[in-house]
């Protein structure tokens, strides 16, 4: 068993594409979300109560708890995002704001280390009686992730100490030892978090507890059922046919072979499981990770990298069931898929994992935020007719425009923390080989070798890598050849250069010298995508992709009744960089056909030939940028 | 304003198609449903409690009320069906059974005429406090309809007297006069029923009360809102965006122009409204009937004649929104559409009304019953994948097989009473013109003219009409030329005969003689149907119809993954009468194409050309007969 790969973060991110989004996050989204967490948003945004809950729990204010049992996690995710933001753009005012929040959080912690404002306010006697639905372990996980990140950026220990105290408390009440609760998180994330904490503070108890959660899950008799019998607390999902599948707790993980249930839970769980598989070197667990990966991405994922076919349980349904207009496709699930992909890349270097990672990242993750950073999608459908969202209850979870905030506000800060830490997803090292998985501009440093990466990705496929520091030693650089790329070439210092193609990578081994310039050119042309014929909802349809970007048609460009548009006979008629459109995007124009919108006599059914079509031009925009020009129809898949 | 047309019932029904279904109803469905109403079904059928409620209300048994507030209506609809059945096939044992049930019903009636077991058992002090949701007036309507039918068939007055007493009671508590409740039914049907009662017993108070219900509905301030404020009883649909639209009570009927809300309520209401418009000759009401008809059938109806696009509220959604796989398409709504069509034909003779009537009748009404008469559909979808019904909550209301009974069992007896009284839907007289709207075998008698109708409809388009009795007087016979028929011809005594074509009818005026044989030949070939391009869910799809019968593909004939089937280049390859298949049906075979079911590498998305197709033969069966061979996939619309 190979050792678990090590993520090598880029530094000094300067990227034509991502820097803009990250600027928006720093300037707009982070302050906006802080206002949300403090119920200071103007207008009709849903109330958070998050920071107030902490003040009440800390005895600084009186009142009742507001929100969901997992409300605390919103500020933790926000703090984690702030930590990454400060790493990129130091900002003393923001840091002071975060320090203040941390003081409040720390003040709410109980003497025994417990820290969950829901139970602190509502009554500690009931804590640890509903691991299944009450999210105490989920909240702990996000606290730990924030604490590690904040400590790594600032060196400040307050939040880390708080997190360690809570982790120690959890270790004292849950685990395999007699007298402890033999349980595991109803909503995973703590597994991943404990692995980070172990890596940060070196206390092996955290690795063992994460491993325990992974191995204990799904054993019979089911812990969640025993807990229910013991404390009489009914499951939030008791009337759902999903049952324990909702929690991926229906069978031991090593025996599971389909991604089922709540999609975010699944992604977080599989991510933590992959960490454990990688660090422990357990081949059975690793095989399960591969099976569940395969189930997720080969049978249950939208072309945008979105997950969750049904609103009911925000869940997976069954193989190849991917309805475009009733999709749940939660932003958090795609964020979770990026986490899972990153960890699979640490498990083993396979370009396909990174293909999925960028599919989610550039499409269904990015679509979660309005271009101004102040509105968010929870649900990322692939087909929208605003009238249907209003009148068809099956689509009432689908919104035609992003929302200012959510009662359950998991997605906005989740997206922020991922975007602000993208540098950690770009490269992985296995042995002496450095695998470059995401193309973004920045510096890549590893053991004496330093490279500056510059790229026009995702708008063009040129990546230039300049060696700025080197040592006398042969080292391998593996550049990912994306799955969307048919023709690519590599040149070194202006000369064509041969590389070995291996499992999705062009691998070049060499003794690098300062001044070396390696250039990867990936042909980036619009290409028509088709779905596997088993996908009922995409039968006879095609989508457009250019590079990693999935495109869509919007009413703003193509008029109403998008279902009447069909792919035309000719290839694309124009690929255009439009700096003034949607924050700067490459648009694609293709020949198209438009059917007549109505029959002259207005009949509903008739024995007539197919409607007349006339030639038209379709204007495609990147899917992630949809719904930035008011509510209107949108479609990813159109008829051929 | 023309006088309201008069329905002229056929007699002596002997029909190759309908007699079989009616035999099944008499032999199987009626006894089966009696067992259901008495909780005597074997197996897992849902409990009814209906007859027991009456016995409890009559003091013959103790216990609590079971079921919905409208539970009584199930036995009334059953009795109405029995009345029609006895008219067709006298059966003293069945009549004795019905008489017994009627005794129990009559015994439950209160001294003041009130009769609703829900309130009799649960407390009369609360009666008439929730017209909106508690269905007292709905139950009364079905009592009246049953009573009139039973009296007409048997001459027995017990149920009619009971109904009249309840009607008088209602008249004493509801109406425009001061001191009465100024309300109207939450679930219409009483409007139609009162018109029948008026016609049966000649008491004009019932006409006036029906008219009052129609004119009062939707006036502001809304009665249902005033009632809620007065009695504090919240609406069953209070959290629905439908609001008063659910009840078609959001605006006066004369101002409504779209069919909205609960589809069955809408059809029953529009039917009663048409009766009132026709009998009162009010042109404003008649215009509203036409508008609401047009909205229903030109913008909100499935090709099978099904209504109700959404499970939520069992309701209409918005124009051209007709999803095939999440359709509600309740059997009762199509039954109601037949009621509405019949009344529009009385309002004015337009062949299009009858086109819709037969579309509903031969397709979505008939599909409501299993061929053995013992299982029923509530929901009649146009596309089914059994796995989706199980795992996609949006489709959990869709069943892949008919059910033994329902907690809310409105559909099974509704279908029975319609099928058993089909003779009342065949012909309408306007002035001296007799319009023949449905083709079925039987005797048509009117003022000295008697004709025997024989036909192979709906399997062939030949109708032979023999005059068996005549008087010396010119009379016009209008034979409907169905909308599906492109070529037709008429011959009289073997010679081609010219007829005037008028608004969907071939009209022949003549002094008929005994022995005259009029033959109508309608070319009946399979034809491809298309939906108006505004129907998103049918874009690029086509369906198959032959005569009035809409066809479908089933897994049993065509294998799994029906979405991979496409229409082939050639026309039909075989139209075959298969007496041993599905109770005897004409099947249609067409050339088709089948896409490969998977990609060799199993990828989910790829940049490849459309899948390989191979030629295949598609076998189509009548839609109404689907799901009689176990659970499997079914589709009405396929790709071209």
Give structural attributes.
six-stranded mixed β-sheet; nine-stranded antiparallel β-sheet; alpha+beta; 17 helices; about 650 residues; homodimer; globular; about 20% strand; Immunoglobulin-like
Walk me through the structure.
The structure is a homodimer of 640-residue chains. Chain A is of the alpha+beta class and 640 residues long. Among the domains of chain A are: 46-174 and 181-211, no CATH class; 428-522, Sandwich (Immunoglobulin-like); 527-639, no CATH class. The first copy, chain A, has helices at 18-37, 50-57, 72-88, 92-108, 117-122, 136-154, 158-173, 190-201, 204-216, 223-231, 263-280, 283-299, 331-347, 351-365, 386-391, 411-419, 555-558; strands at residues 6-7, 383-384, 427-430, 433-436, 442-446, 449-455, 462-469, 474-480, 488-492, 495-496, 500-502, 505-511, 517-522, 526-531, 541-546, 549-554, 565-578, 585-595, 605-606, 613-622, 634-635, 638-639. In chain A, the strands form 3 sheets. In chain A, strands 2, 14, 15, 16, 17, 18, 20, 21 and 22 form a 9-stranded antiparallel beta sheet that branches. Chain A has a 6-stranded mixed beta sheet with strand order 1-3-4-8-12-11, covered by helices on one side. In chain A, strand 3 and strand 4 (433-436) form a beta hairpin. In chain A, helix 3 runs antiparallel to helix 4 (92-108) and helix 11 packs parallel to helix 13 (331-347). The longest helix of chain A has 20 residues, at 18-37. The mean pLDDT of chain A is 96. At the A-B interface, helix 12, helix 15, strand 14 and strand 19 of A face helix 12, helix 15, strand 14 and strand 19 of B. Strand 19 (605-606) of chain A pairs antiparallel with strand 14 (526-531) of chain B, so a sheet runs across the interface.
């Amino acid at each position: 068993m190979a050792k678990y790969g090590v993520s090598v973060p880029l530094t000094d991110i300067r990227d034509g594409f991502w820097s803009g989004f990250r600027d928006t996050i720093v300037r707009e989204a982070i302050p906006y979300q802080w206002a949300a967490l403090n119920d200071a948003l103007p207008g009709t945004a849903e109330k958070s109560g998050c920071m107030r809950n902490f003040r009440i729990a800390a005895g600084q204010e009186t009142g009742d708890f507001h929100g969901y049992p997992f409300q605390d996690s919103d500020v933790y995710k926000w703090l984690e995002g702030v930590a990454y933001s400060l790493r990129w753009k130091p900002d003393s005012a923001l840091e002071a704001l975060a320090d203040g929040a941390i003081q409040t959080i720390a003040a709410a912690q109980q003497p025994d280390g417990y820290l969950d404002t829901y139970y602190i306010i509502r009554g500690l006697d009931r804590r640890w009686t509903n691991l299944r639905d009450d999210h105490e372990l989920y909240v702990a996980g996000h606290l730990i992730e924030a604490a590690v990140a904040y400590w790594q950026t600032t060196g400040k220990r307050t939040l880390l100490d708080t997190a360690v105290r809570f982790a120690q408390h959890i270790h004292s009440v849950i685990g395999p030892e007699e007298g402890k609760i033999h349980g595991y998180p109803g909503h995973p994330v703590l597994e991943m978090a404990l692995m980070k904490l172990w890596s940060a503070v070196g206390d092996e108890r955290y690795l063992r507890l994460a491993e325990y959660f992974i191995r204990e899950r799904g054993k019979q008799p089911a812990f969640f059922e025993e807990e229910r019998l013991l404390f009489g607390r009914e499951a939030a999902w008791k009337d759902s046919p999903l049952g324990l599948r909702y929690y991926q707790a229906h069978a031991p993980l090593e025996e599971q072979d389909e991604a089922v249930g709540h999609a975010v839970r699944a992604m977080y769980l599989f991510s933590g499981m992959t960490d454990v598989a990688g660090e422990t070197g357990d081949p059975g667990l690793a095989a399960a990770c591969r099976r569940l990966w395969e189930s997720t991405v080969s049978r249950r994922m939208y072309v945008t990298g979105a997950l969750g076919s049904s609103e009911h349980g925000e869940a997976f349904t069954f193989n190849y069931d991917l309805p475009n207009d009733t999709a749940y496709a939660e932003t958090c699930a795609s964020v979770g898929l990026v986490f899972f992909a990153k960890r699979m890349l640490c498990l083993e270097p396979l370009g396909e994992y990174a293909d999925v990672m960028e599919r989610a990242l550039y499409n269904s993750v990015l679509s979660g935020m309005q271009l101004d950073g102040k509105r968010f999608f929870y649900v990322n459908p692939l087909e929208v007719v605003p009238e249907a969202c209003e009148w068809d209850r099956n689509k009432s979870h689908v919104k035609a425009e992003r929302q200012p905030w959510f009662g359950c506000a998991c997605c906005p800060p989740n997206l922020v923390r991922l975007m602000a830490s993208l540098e950690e997803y770009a490269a992985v090292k296995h042995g002496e080989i450095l695998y470059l998985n995401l193309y973004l501009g920045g510096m890549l440093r590893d053991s004496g070798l330093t490279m500056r990466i510059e790229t026009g990705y995702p708008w063009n496929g040129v990546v230039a890598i300049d060696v700025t520091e080197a040592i006398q030693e042969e080292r391998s650089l593996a550049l990912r050849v994306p799955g969307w790329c048919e023709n690519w070439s590599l040149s070194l210092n202006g000369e064509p250069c041969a590389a070995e193609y291996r499992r999705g990578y062009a691998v070049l081994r060499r003794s690098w010298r300062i001044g070396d310039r390696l250039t990867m050119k990936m042909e980036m042309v619009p290409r028509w995508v088709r779905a596997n014929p088993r996908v009922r909802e995409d039968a006879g349809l095609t989508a457009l992709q250019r590079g990693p970007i999935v495109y869509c048609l919007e009413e703003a460009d193509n008029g109403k009744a998008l279902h009447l548009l069909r792919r035309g006979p000719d290839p694309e008629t124009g690929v255009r960089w439009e700096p003034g459109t949607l924050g700067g995007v490459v648009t694609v124009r293709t020949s198209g056909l438009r059917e007549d919108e109505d029959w002259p006599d207005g009949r509903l059914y008739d024995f007539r030939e197919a409607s007349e079509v006339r030639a038209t031009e379709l204007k495609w925009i990147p899917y992630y940028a949809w719904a930035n020009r008011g509510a209107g129809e949108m479609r990813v898949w159109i008829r051929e």
